[in-house]
Amino acid sequence: MISPNLRIAYRFLTAKKRAMFMSLSCTVLGVGLFIVTQATTSGFEDIFTRTLLGINGAIRIEDRLQDTMRSMAAAGASDFYFAQREGVKYIEGVEEPQRIIDALRDFANVRGVSAVLRGSIQITSSFKTEDAQMFGIRLEDHLRVSDLGQQITAGKLEDFRNANSGALVGRVLADRLQLAVGDSVVIAARGESRRFVVSAIFETGYREVDKTNIYLHLPEVRSLLRKPSGATYLQINLHDAERAPADAARMEAVLRHGAKPWQEREKSWLEVFRALRVSTGITVTVFTLIASLAMFNTLAMIVLEKTKDIAILRSMGYERRDITRIFLWQAGIVLAIGAVVGALFGAGVTWLVGQVPLSISGIFKSDRFMVIYDWRHYAAAIGTAVIMVMVASLIPARRAARLEPGDIVRGTAQ
Amino acid sequence: MSAAGPVAPGEVALRCTDLHRYLGRDEGRVHVLKGVSFEARRGQVYAIVGPSGCGKSTLLYLLGLLDQPDGGQIEINGRVMSNTDDAARTAARGEHIGFVFQFHFLMLEFSALENVMMPMRKLGRLAPAEMEARARHLLDAVGLGAKTHRLGTQLSGGEQQRVAIARALANQPTILLADEPTGNLDVKNSGLVFDLITRLAKEQGQAVILVTHNPEIAQRCDHTRPMRDGLFVG
Prior knowledge:
The structure holds two protein chains of two kinds. Chain A is an alpha+beta fold. Helix content of chain A is 57%, strand content 20%.
C-alpha cells in the first residue's frame, strides 16, 4: 500500500508542474554533468596510468638498503624488522638480481619480473648524434612486465629477438635521428662504441620516454658498461596493480631493497589528475546547488500555497512529522527521477564524448576523448544531489510542520 | 493512539471547564475567552451563537484541540487533553473529532473519494478496500454517490461542503465540530447541509457542536449557547 504521505506529496508536487520541472531539470543536469566530468577526467587518468604501467611496470626495485646497527640487531635477534624510512641509506642498484627474482616468486601478486641495466649513451645515425638512455633487457622477461609488444609501430620484435645487435628505438628519437627500421647506429658509452641495427621503432605515447629510450639486449649493455653482473633495477608487473603499495612495502621489508610502487613513483601526475577531478566536480556541483535552491524555492512556494491543506491534514490527525515527510517526499520524488534520468543523461553524454576524435600525445597518446564508466562516479553524483537537495528541503519541510492548524484556520498564520 | 474508550449515546463526549485564551501580543493582547465552561453529549446538536469576535470560533478550535488554552481544562471522552503533548492531541483529533469548516477546505488535487479516505488512511484502522467502501457509503449518504471521482475543483460550493461532512465522519468520530458550516452557502444548500449534519450525527450518536450566525439554523439545534465577549450569556 502506498504511504498516504507519499500520495499527498506526489499530488502537491504535480500541481506545481513548472516549478517541479525546474528543480528536476537542475537535478538532472547536476547529476549528469557530474558523471560526465568524472568520466572524462578519470578516463585520461586511466590511460595515463595504463601508459605508465605499460612502460615502467607496477613496482620498481632498486638500490639495496644499507644495514644499520639498529636493523642488524633487530634482524639478528628475531624475525622482527625495525623499519626506519627516514635517513635510510641505500647502495645503488641490485647486486644480485637473480636472488631477488627467485625471492619474488613467493609473492602471489607478482606476474613477471625483468632485470634492467640502464646507462647513458650517445647515439649517432648518419644524420646526427643525440644523447639517450639505453636499457638492457631480456626481451621475454620484459614483455611480461611492459606493453613493449604492443608499442611497436615499425619493424618486428622477432627481428630484435633474433639479432644480438638489434635495437628498439623510441619514435621521437628515431625521427630526430631520421632512423628507419634496418638502419644502423653507433652507440657510445664510457668510451666504448658499438654498431647496432634498428630492429623496430616503438611509441609509448609518453614523449620523454619516446625521445630518450633505446632497448638493447642485456649482454650487449653489460659489455658496453663493463658490468658483468647486477642490474640497475627490477621492473615488476602485478596481477592487481592497485595492491602495489602494500606489495612494495612487503618487498622492501623482506628483500632489503628499495621498492617503489607506481602510485608513489607517479605521485605528482596522479595528484594533478585528482585535483582536476575534484575541481571539475566542484564546478559542476554548482548545478546541483542550483537544483537544491530550486527545490527549496518550489517547496517554500508549496508551503505558502498549501497552508490550508496543512491545517486540514493536521485537523484529520496527521502529525507534524507527517507534514515534514510529505515535503521531504516531494524532494525525494524529484531526486529519484532526477537521479535516474541524470544517470542516463550522464551515461549518454559520456558515450557521445567518447566518440569525439581528439589527438593527444605528451604523457600518453590518444586519438579520441578518453572516458571510463565507473559506478562510483554515479554514486558520488547521486549522493551529492541527495545531500544538497534534502538539506535544502528540510527548511521548508520543517516550517510546514511548525505551522499551527489553529492559526491557519483562524487566518492568522505567519 | 486511543484518547479514550467508547462512549454510549447520551454520555458526555466533550467537556471544558474555565477555559481562558488570549490572542495577540504585548499591547495587542486580547483576552478572548474568559473562563468558558461547556459540555456536549452524544446524539445532541449544540449551536454556539454570538456576534463576530465574541470568541466562538476560538472556543471551537480549542475544543477541537487545534489550539491550546491559556487556562482551564478540556476532556474528550473522559480524558483530559488540554495539557497533553502535540502528538496525543493530534491522535485524539484523528480518532475522536471530525471538523467541518466554513470554507470547505477540501484538498483540491484529490477526488471526493480520496478526500473522504484521507483521514481513514492516516488512522489505518481499515483495510484499503474497507476504506473505499466506507468512503463511497458516506458520499452516498451526502448525496454525492455519482460524483465520487470528481476533483474538488469540479464540485460546487454546496457539494464541496457535503464532501467535507462525509470526510469529517470518515473515522466515526464521537464529536463533530462545525465552524459556520452553512456560512458560505445559499439558503437551499444551507438547509441541506444542516439536515445532513444533524441526521448523520443522530444516526451515529455523535455530539455536534456548531458555530453559526444563522438564527434559523441555531433554532433547529437541540441546544443553543449564546456567547458575548468571551463568555456564555444564556
